[in-house]
Amino acid sequence: MQRVTRFAGVLVALGLAAIGSLPPGAQAQGVSPSPPPTPDWSLVRNWALGVLGELVGGPDTPSGPTGTAQPSDTPGPAASGPTIEELVGQKLVVRMTGRKPSDALLGRIGRGEIGGVVLLASNITTRSKLVKLTRTLQQAATDGGQPPLLIALDQEGGSVKRVTWAPPTMTVPQMGQNGSAAVARSQGAATGATLRHLGINVDLAPVADIPRSPDSFMYQQGRVFSFDAGHTATLADAFATGLASSGVMATMKHFPGIGLAIRNTDHYADTIDASKDALELDLRPYRRAIAHDIPLIMLSNATYAAYDPDNAAGWSEAIAVQLARDELGFQGVTITDSLDGAAHSRGLTDRDLAKRAAQAGTDMILMTGSERTTARVFDTLVAGARDGSIPLGTLRTSYDRIMTLKRHL
Question: Which site in 127, 142, 176, 359 is 20 to 30 Å from 182, CA atoms measured?
Fold first, then answer.
């Protein structure tokens, strides 16, 4: 009791000090007093509770079975780490409906229920309106005290180019035919510079897929550099390096390669039956890019029988973790391809696939369905984290990678 009484006396003294506006002796030195600032009572309160806990022998931060701090369900200065909602929210990259963000979307951003927004052609009109849009999205995160958003789009060049007036000025096949790494790097740098001024910090490019024949759907869409693995590795890496030089993050895709796929994996549940030896060719661009610290890798919606016959890459631990990280040494952030079409083609819901991706250890989940749909995905993942079907340790590992990525924005 004596210790608590002494603590109370110290607390009163600190409270009085917090209200004061001048350092000790300032008035005696003839310094004019200034209006007292509003004290930050939350800091005083949290310090006081901590000291009181030590004085009366109260418990410190709750610990789990291994003695590590567990995520708190309620945010605040005294929380031991991110809340479950924050762990889940930072994983989600969602589509925005229309050309102006809804109040509901801005509210989700401010509460930390979204880690990124992907922009489609339907969201984009003029340069000035796009700048206003991206500023509004980021301001919602700032106002809510959240980390900055990833604002992403597909700006590959050619047939996939969301901002029509922006670089790259060459299509991907044209860069491949030119064959110059310097040209590809210059195209990436110009693209990054324009995107950055527009408020976009992630390009979902370059494509690193290597078609095996003209029947490849990626070749048919005009989205590949070359049939040659070495050529593709050089040019994709150069384009990514150019983006980085202008302050925009590249996303190499579609890991571990969909050059062998004949049908569009956004709409069909395609399985690639090639052996690991045959698929080694597809990994060459990723080995090179990982050596140069590629920040993001997008996982494909195809299934690879040699790695995991039951799960497509986006929700396969064998591919997202064992292959990408344990074998290739990738340290950045993995992100799924859009799961909406993939779910439909498998007779599943997007919530099903999002949960599988989270369980597998994929860091971020890309959803291009309606805002109502993506809000339901958030609720499903939070419920899974609470009931233990999605391990908190897996969520925390992804969260830490995402936070590391965002510190570079």
Answer: 127
